[in-house]
Design goal:
seven-stranded parallel β-sheet; 25 helices
Length: 611
């Protein structure tokens, strides 16, 4: 083993083993493992979930990941150790069984009426199709969950219900529960909740009706009255703090609320969950927007009486902390700061790849990249291409044409169904867009080229800041450059106090990194360049978290470094070669000139210069 491999093995044995992670979880409620791309975070999670330490201590272990494919890969490894009978994979609603009621189901889901749908639509459709009990209905019941050791689900469960963790813990009282959140998008997605004034008024109207309903019990009327009085205060002054958290509406009352609401209002929405969330927040985190006539609030992920292990790369700790309702979080694994000695990372810092200029400058860029790919092919090396999602079809059409002229008709650019192709063939070029994560199909590819740049604008950055820190939502940042030409977030005015200025600038730059640079790092990381010998060509004005061997400020510098020609030079060489070849075959001068579309003077220049 070389020094790099020894260091990597030592790092894994020190920080990624179950004993270390378990000991840290016993000291801290929430732990963060931010080890870099390809270092082994997911493999560490698998070792933990199959370790007697974890299995004996925790009653249930929930594993949440970004995509269903990621989930299945881990599931297949776990079941070999703990057995299929001890595992539950939470499924999406089986739409194929819902059949003709599926449209109605989706409408109810959108309006927060899932509980009503479970009680009425599910029963109705199961009777129609002769299905006796749908497993999906009961998969989140206490009986089902507590009968399994490891529960797999996609992180969308938290996106739909930020109180998912609290709900699970309350269902499984007395259980020791661990939630492992692996590379989940819940830390990147919008967490701004909205309640329209119309939905607010309809909901309050139904509460008044329930107080008068003869089926409502005395204890339920007390709960409803508390809700009514609190909502009246919110209606009068949306920016005033709630005195207490709203009491929980029991299942029977919830069903009656939804049933009566549907009967009375055609477009009724159940907003009880959202209002309960608002009642737990500081006034800075909810407000009334007069322009849209709606209540807005920050829908943070709630944590209660459970251990959380977050394993993510490229998401700053402060962002995770804010998303988890500013709960303290302990970093238990350092970032592995080294890169494979055989890897070379280059960065082209010009604006040609930006959305504004890419199509216009694509001819020059494509000529450069085509020559690089031609070299890779001659060396029998594979290449992964990356561009913005909106340029996928443009690149596939235009760039493939350029490549075919230079490298031959065998070239194919592939944009989906990658498993159907032999990606070890240098002539097959997979093309993916920024934002792709979790795909492991490209781990053996030797080179990656970013054909375009990935940037966000000022408005997106400010929207992200305001979603996280609404108390500062009137403050704006612009994206500028530091002395080294790297993009940075700059406050457009003097903010608040020195300490708050420092904190806001840190969060703003963390967000700029997460939504711009980190997305680039994630997608090039598909070829596992940190732990393997690879060549990476980036195209961003960013400060990356890994070492960049050389940066270029012009295409001329790239050509000089890699020994490439300009489009004019390469065209000249090709025409010259064709002229000499035709002359050697005895073809007449006039016929050569006509066939190649060159002038008589050019013909003589090719012939005489060659001699």
């Amino acid at each position: 083993m070389d020094t790099f491999e020894l260091d990597l093995v030592s790092f894994r044995k020190t920080y990624l083993i179950p004993t270390h992670i378990f000991s840290q979880l016993q000291k801290h409620q929430i732990c963060l493992n931010p080890a870099g791309l390809g270092i082994g975070k997911t493999e560490s999670n698998i070792q933990c979930m199959t370790s007697p330490l974890f299995l004996n201590h925790y009653t249930q272990i929930f594993y949440l990941t970004e995509t269903h494919n990621n989930l299945l890969e881990v599931h297949d490894k776990i079941k070999l150790v703990v057995g299929e009978d001890n595992i539950l994979v939470l499924q999406r609603r089986p739409e194929e069984l819902c059949k003709e009621l599926n449209v109605q189901w989706k409408d109810f889901e959108k309006r927060g009426l899932s509980y009503y749908a479970r009680k009425h639509l599910c029963k109705k459709i199961c009777m129609v199709n002769g299905v006796h009990g749908c497993e999906w209905i009961d998969q989140l019941s206490k009986k089902t969950i507590t009968s399994k050791k490891i529960i797999f689900c996609v992180a969308d469960y938290i996106l739909v219900n930020p109180g998912f963790i609290v709900d699970i813990v309350s269902k499984c009282k007395g259980s020791k529960i661990l939630f492992i959140i692996d590379e989940a998008k819940i830390f990147k997605n919008n967490n701004l909740g909205v309640i329209t004034f119309k939905d607010f008024s309809n909901f309050k109207n139904i509460l008044f009706d329930l107080v008068e309903d003869i089926s409502t019990t005395a204890s339920e009327k007390i709960i409803i009255d508390t809700w009514i009085q609190t909502l009246k205060k919110l209606d009068r002054n949306p920016n005033k703090s709630f005195a207490t958290t709203l009491p929980i509406i029991n299942w029977g009352l919830k069903l009656n609320n939804q049933k009566l609401g549907i009967r009375k209002f055609k477009d009724y929405c159940y907003i009880g969950y959202k209002l309960q969330k608002i009642s737990t927040l500081h006034p800075d985190y909810y407000w009334y927007d007069k322009k849209t006539a709606s209540f807005n609030f920050v829908d943070l992920i709630k944590i209660k009486n459970a251990n959380i292990l977050v394993t993510v790369a490229n998401i700053p700790r402060e962002i995770i902390k804010i998303k988890l309702d500013r709960t303290n979080i302990k970093t238990i694994v350092p970032t592995f700061g080294k890169i494979h000695p055989g890897t070379k990372v280059y960065n082209l810092k010009i604006n040609y790849g930006s959305k504004k200029y890419f199509r216009h400058k694509s001819k020059q860029l494509f000529d450069l990249f085509a020559q690089m790919i031609s070299k890779n092919i001659r060396n029998s090396e594979t290449t992964l291409l990356i561009t913005n999602k909106e340029f996928i079809n443009f690149v596939r059409e235009k760039f493939e044409s350029v490549l075919k002229k230079l490298c031959g008709e065998n070239i194919i650019i592939v944009t989906d169904s990658f498993e159907r192709y032999d990606l070890s063939n240098p002539f097959i070029l997979p093309l993916i867009s920024y934002g792709i994560c979790g795909l492991n199909a490209f781990q053996q590819i030797k080179n990656v080229i970013c054909l375009s740049s990935y940037y966000i604008n000022d408005d997106i950055l400010n929207d992200k800041i305001n979603e996280l820190l609404p108390e500062f939502r009137k403050i704006r940042f612009t994206i500028g450059q530091d002395k080294k030409g790297n993009r940075v977030a700059i406050p457009s005015e003097e903010l608040v106090s020195d300490s708050e200025n420092k904190y806001l600038c840190k969060v703003a730059n963390d967000l700029l990194y997460m939504f711009e640079t980190a997305i680039t790092e994630q997608v090039v990381g598909r070829i596992r360049f940190i732990t393997n010998s690879r060549t990476v060509l980036l195209q961003n004005n960013s400060k990356f978290s890994f070492f960049v061997h050389k940066e270029f400020s012009s295409l001329k510098e790239v050509r000089r470094h890699f020994g490439l020609k300009t489009h004019r030079d390469s065209t000249y060489s090709k025409k010259k070669e064709e002229t000499l070849e035709l002359q050697a075959r005895g073809i007449d001068m006039d016929e050569i000139i006509k066939k190649l579309g060159i002038s008589r003077a050019t013909y003589y220049r090719y012939i005489y210069i060659s001699k």
